[in-house]
Amino acid sequence: MKALHKITSKDLLRPVLNYIQVKDDFVYAMDTHAAVIAPLNEVFFEKGIIAPDEELYFNGQEWGAFKIYKADIITRDGNYYTAKTLKGTVLGTIKALTVDEFKSIGKYPDVQSVFPTDIQPQTISRIGINYKVYQNACEALGGESIHIRCTFYGVDKPILLTTKDYNSKVVFMPCYDRKNGY
Fold first, then answer.
1. Coil/strand/helix, residue 62
2. 3-state secondary structure (DSSP) of residue 61
3. 3-state secondary structure of 89
4. Torsion sign, CA atoms 129, 130, 136, 137
5. DSSP-assigned states of every residue in 108-140
6. Burial degree of 181 (CB within 10 A; 0-12, 13-18, 19+)
7. What's the gap between Cα 56 and its chain centre?
8. Mean pLDDT of 114-140
9. Which of 22, 31, 67 is CA-nearest to residue 49?
10. Residue 86 to residue 73: CA distance in whole angstroms
């Protein structure tokens, strides 16, 4: 399970970024600093619990508060998802919003569009990174001990983090200081 709430906004001025989107067999989360994409089956263990063509939205703060990311098992009753341990202890229940319910909040950004596709990786001598954004990105990808690969595209270009199998990925911007060169 992924701590996707780490990459959702708490900003009331951008309420759509407070949500985790499930669409086209992937799960998306973003705030103003980073964006994450993960395959649906890496987030919801049970195949078929969410159909590949369903589009749903989960509140990121509820995802964290109800410990959905710590679940061993997730069950579904309508649009309510219950997180459980292997022993059956209920961690919490969260309601997913449908597309029609989410329309009153706004339109979710095209997360795929912020991932680098047409630029080549570069070797860089140094780079500034906001540690908290990096830490949240690692936790969203799978926890503190996960092995990730960093790809750099320049000191003022996005940094791409991918899991070892390249299935899940996060992109975020470096903290670039033109005066000091990093």
1. helix
2. helix
3. coil
4. negative
5. ---GGGGS--SS-----S-----HHHHHHHHHH
6. exposed
7. 14
8. 84
9. 22
10. 7
Residue type, 102: F
- Measured between alpha carbons, how far apart are the two ends of the chain, in Å? 34
Task: Indicate the average pLDDT of the chain.
Answer: 86
CA dist., res. 106 & res. 15, Å (int): 8
- pLDDT tops 70 at residue 177: no
Does residue 181 register a pLDDT over 60? Answer: no
User: How far is the C-alpha of 158 from the C-alpha of 175, rounded, in Å?
Assistant: 10
Q: In the 8-state DSSP scheme, what is residue 5?
A: G
pTM > 0.85: yes
Residue 170 and residue 134 in contact, taking contact as beta carbons nearer than 8 Å: no
The two three-digit tokens of residue 115, written as one number: 């991932």
Tell which residue, 34, 36, 61, 60, has the closest CA to residue 133. 34
In eight-state DSSP terms, residue 96 is P
How long is the chain?
182
- Tell me the two tokens of residue 128: 């500034």
User: Are the C-beta atoms of 30 and 19 separated by less than 8 Å?
Assistant: no
